[in-house]
Each structure stands twice: as C-alpha cells, then as structure tokens.
Amino acid sequence: MVDYKSKFKLIKELDWKLIITVIIIFAFGILMLSSATHSNETGNYTKLYKQGLAFVLGLGMIIFMLMFDYNFLGKYYKGLYLISLILLVLVLVPGIGNEQMGARSWVKIGPLNLQTSEIVKLTFILSYAKIVESKRGKLNTLKDLIPVVVYAIPFIGLLFSQPDLGTAIVFMCIIGGMLFTAGLDTKIIKRGIIIILVSMPLMYMMMASHQKDRIEAFLNPEDVTLKGNYQVMQSLIAIGSGGFTGKGLYNGTQNQEGFLPVQESDFIFAVIGEELGVWGMVFIVVLFAVFLMRMLAIAREAKDFYGTLIVVGVMSMFAYQIIQNIGMTVALIPVTGVTLPFVSYGGSSLLTSMANLGLVLNVCMRKKKINF
User: Fold this and answer.
1) How large a percentage of the chain has pLDDT more than 70?
2) pLDDT tens digit sequence for 156-168
3) Among candidates 88, 108, 90, which has minimal Cα distance to 98?
C-alpha cells in the first residue's frame, strides 16, 4: 500500500523559496530572450517555444529525480562512474562525435546534437561525492589526496582532449568545492595554488590554438583585431550605453541592430545591461545570489554528508557558470562558451541545469529521515 502521508511530508520539505527563485529567473530570461532573438520584430518565436519546452521537460526531469532517494542512486556510484567515462569517450569516436566551436564535445543523434559532458556533470557529482564522503577529515596530506585525485583525472583528461577547457574548469570547481567541504588541509590548498601558478606557462603551451587566442585577446583588450575582443568590446559598449535605467526593452541598439554577437546565449547579460541598465543587472545578480544561498542552506541542513557533498557540487558548478558568464561580458575573465544558467538560450544546458536542481531538491526533500 502506498503511503501517501509520507509522500506529502516529503513534498512539504521542498525548498519553495529556491523553486520560486528559479521560476522568476527563467521568466526573466524568457523576457530577455524575446529581445535577444528579435522575435518582437520578426514574429518568429521558435526559440522561445523551444526554451519553454525545455523548461517543461526539465520540470518533468525534476519530478523523476525526486522519485529516487539520492542514497539509492549513490549505491550505484561505480556504474555511474563507468557510464560517465563512456559518454566522454563517445564524442572522440570517428563518425559519432561532432565538432562545434573548436571542441569535439557533441554526439549527433538524428537531428539532435547532444553535448555528453552536460549529462556527465550530474552523474559525476553523484559518483564523486560518494568517493569524497569516505575521505571526510582524512585529507591532511598529499598521500591522502592521491585516491580522490586519481578518480577525477580521467574526466579532466578526456575534457582536455576534446578540447573543452570551459567544461574542464567547471569539473575542477565541482571537485574543489567537494574537497574543501570534506576538510582539505589549508596547506595543501596553498601548495595547489602555487603549483597551478607555476605550471601556467606549460598549461598555455598545451592549449588549442583557439584557446590561446582567447587568452591573448584577454591580455590585450585594446586590440580589436584579436579574436574574441570584438565580442567583448561590443558587450562593453552595450552595457555602458545602458546606464542606470537602460534604453528600454527591445530598444537596445547593439542588440537589435546585430552588433552584439551570440546575444541570445553567451552575451545575454550584455542585453540585460543595455536594455534594463544597472537596475536590471543588479536584479538578476541578486536573484542568483538568493539562488546560491538557498542551496548553501540546503547543504547545511542535509541529513548526511553525502547529501551535503551533492549540493555543494551542484552549487559549485552553478557558481562558476554564473561568475564566468557575467565576468566575460564585462572583460574581467577570458571569453568561454559558458552560458548563464536558466537565462541563456540552449535546450541541453537548461535541461542539465534543471536535472541538477532536481538533485538539490532531492537532498532537501529528504533532510528528515522519512521513509518514501
């Protein structure tokens, strides 16, 4: 017999503030996409319909995710680890993998292009959190760190081989967030920072040509002939011309006249700045701050450390994506193809964000020991 009373108790434990915040962010994103895609002029709402459909499918995915206790999913962490590696290897297989924007990160399935690393973000968080859970309070020396690093190396290596530096950094942030939460010794953190700084020249030499171009462009922002600087320059012009109050929705000249590249995804924040001004940018930044703070609260209230690590992993992923996307539009960070969660156009990105949100809500819903 189904225990509906227990199910209702679980639903009551959901963080509705987090859910409402995400809905507001998405609704705001749809409004800005209507301007960024110029649907107000062309009457073509195809991309908006696709984005809306992806959100609805994402809600279905969240409901599906909530049906399984995250600890039940954690039991199969070895299988999830294997599946994750297979998905990342798949894109490197000739005839299956598809290259876009300089990275072989996609698998073509009929008319659809699937970025497998988006799926792997979720499966990796579930599996890696299980490994780190067993090392809680035992990460005081480099010897202690070796097992958890070895576990993660294949993922980072495969992402670099695509090459997809942006996604590799996302995974590093997930790993770093979890290890820090598990009590990684501060001495190791300091040494790690020094090693990264010293090895930067070697890392630069190993980068693909288009990645080197982005670094060079970032270091020479005044040279618009360098690839990437034109995008940033147009972004800065758009944001600067918006002032405090903006030019008004659908009235941004950089956006509406096509000067701002990739305005519906990578540079959607510049559209917000131009058309809604400082107030619009502050509004979305505050919403994202609330979004991250709610996840931090859920991580603290989780019934077990595995749940805490899952939420921290997801939160680290979102935090990096938000900071990276906004940072590159204002020339504070080199340009990468990282989208603004729940705002930028992109079905696979939105579905992944919703699925990971489902993981967080799964932990939240089961913060009290109620049988499902």
Assistant:
1) 85
2) 888 887 777 788 8
3) 108
